[in-house]
Amino acid sequence: MSKFWSDRVKTTKPYTYGEQPKDKKYIKLNTNENPYPVSKLAIEAMKAAVNDDLKLYPDPTCFELRSEIAAYYGVDKDEVFVGNGSDEVLAFSFMAFFNRGDKVIYPDISYSFYDVYAGLLGVESERIPLNEDFSIPVEKYKNKNIGILIANPNAPTGVCLTLSEIEDIVSSNPHSLVLVDEAYIDFGGETAISLTKKYDNLLVSQTFSKSRSLAGMRVGFAIGDKKLIEALERIKNSINSYTIDRVAIAGATASIRDVEHFEATRRLVIETRERVVPCLEKLAFTVLPSKANFIFAKHESISGQTLYEQLKHRGILVRHFAKPRIEDYLRISIGSDAEMDAFLSVLEDIVKSYK
Ligand SMILES: *Cc1c(COP(=O)(O)O)cnc(C)c1O
Prior knowledge:
alpha/beta, Aspartate Aminotransferase, domain 1, Aspartate Aminotransferase, domain 2, 12 strands, about 35% helix, globular, binds pyridoxal-5'-phosphate, HistidinolP_aminotransfase
């Protein structure tokens, strides 16, 4: 605390990101990064961008990147907003669509950044409890006509709503914004982007960080009615017009074009996930049905805290949330097959030692 701090700084509760310890080399299964390399086409494009003209500002409209995203998803480029990571897209959305004192709803167990943005911007939030099985109680989101945020698949559970469930929520709330955060949609869920043509209250956000192996580049985007996109542009141009640098614009554009690499790597992640789930079940874990690049699992007798610590001790990082209802769960990112084999073998040892 310092006398120079604004009230906003004093009261904000910042996001706690996944640890990145430097004391030894860990197998990192704690931040949902993609184990597969960046598209070669994207790397070439980024190298060319470095050699090009970094002395000049980037295109503040991200025309080329937005056009490429629009073409890929079959929407108009005026229906696409690009941000510095989808976290920025989400933060700008809070500013663009909710007033101080407005109420928004989202699940009690969800991406914890929603609490942070709401707190920072004075937006009230009501957290709707997930069902016992960690599914989202769709009925409780219908006909509310207040702002709604849903991560789909949800984080950190990996549980996914169907497109028709999302449509039920969107269509029954015509007077409020529904923001669907699809950070993990490419790992088996069905995107709601098609619904943005039909509903002007739906905004869908996605990211290059997970399914496109570009977490280090910081690009995310939102698709929705062009009036929604205009609102996001107005916020962006009131804070920083150049949120996406030239290298990132080039890399992200090439990444969208490299459909083959995208399809191959996301398929590998899905296959590994499907292979690992039964192995965990054999070790007496309950595993929630996941459509993400991570799984959320709980052992029948060993606590989440103990498993987290034992794994870390043996060089494997997973994410543990010391929060009600989920304190005995671990969120395990899907790594390469070799990483997952190492993880499973260490885990088997730990589980045996507690018998
Ligand atoms: C990772 C993640 C994001 C943000 O990703 P960026 O790296 O900022 O694009 C947004 N929402 C959820 C649920 C996430 O897990």
